[in-house]
Amino acid sequence: RTVLETIELTKRYHRPALFGKGAETVAADAVSFTLKRGRTLGIVGESGSGKSTVARCVMRLVDPSSGAIRVRGEDISDLGRAALRPHRRHIQMVFQDPNRSLNPRIPIGESIIEGPVNYGTPRAEALKRARELLDLVGLPPDAVTRHPHEFSGGQRQRIAIARALAMEPEIIVADEAVSALDVSVQAQVLDLLADIQERLGVAILFITHDLRVAAQICDDIIVMQKGRIVEQGEAARVLTAP
Ligand code: ADP
Ligand code: ADP
Asked: Boundaries of each ABC transporter domain copy (predicted)?
């Protein structure tokens, strides 16, 4: 079952000109892909190739210029804030920097339950679930009362993953989610993501500039260059191609 699909997704950035005519960057140019339940689709490419732009469009953090974005079959590309809300919970993002998901001043349990509580889950129930999620990502359940600075980078990324999972998403968009971690810690977090995908059937859109990392976790791969898809297919084939 397809949980996420883009059709000719295009994003242009207009840059105000200092001198003469303003330049235009086509950051994503007619990008089409499908992501199925329980699969990991990698988007790889050099810096500036448009990977993050695709992620930001899919999350509707920026507005696409044209094309469709179907989340669980529904096109969300044109929806306004209020109409987006019911769709948003199905798709959660994990950033390179876990501090983007975790408020340093509040206990991690509060960060984990924030989304579910906003969507109407009773506090006590959400906290119970937060403890279970911490256990799932390999941290002690009683860590709910501790603050982000008490954890290592890898642990913080696990907590950010727990926060994403608290919304019971069908899709996780991981944007360079292990890129800032040491290689040994990277492998552990990748194992965790693979485990989550298997146990919960979550689909992962995995954005990385690192082919070695992509090879470790992706089923399928899209290669981007200057905003365009230049190659796509099964990871084993794409990554071994000359
Ligand atoms: P990647 O994630 O592969 O590094 P990006 O999606 O961040 O690539 O960037 C793709 C292109 O779009 C680059 O040329 C980048 O400079 C440009 N770009 C990204 N965000 C903006 C923005 N907010 N305004 C103008 N140009 C942007
Ligand atoms: P991330 O590390 O999350 O991918 P980036 O470092 O690519 O973020 O970009 C940070 C912010 O700067 C984003 O909001 C992006 O849209 C913006 N940005 C990236 N490239 C450009 C650009 N060439 N011109 C203007 N804004 C840009």
From this structure: 4-242
3-state helix, strand, coil in the chain (%, to 5): 40, 30, 35
Distance 52 CA to ligand 1 centre (A): 7
pTM, whole model, 2 decimals? 0.90
Pocket around ligand 1 at a 6 A CB cut-off: 13, 15, 25, 27, 45, 47-53
Q: How far apart are CA 207 and CA 71, in angstroms?
A: 18
Q: Rounded distance, CA 28 to CA 24, Å?
A: 12
Could you give the CA distance from residue 231 to residue 224 in angstroms, rounded to a whole number? 7
Interval between CA 100 and ligand 1 midpoint (Å): 19
Q: Strand pairing partners for 12?
A: 26
Residue range 192-218: average pLDDT?
95
Gap from CA of 95 to ligand 2 centroid (Å): 13
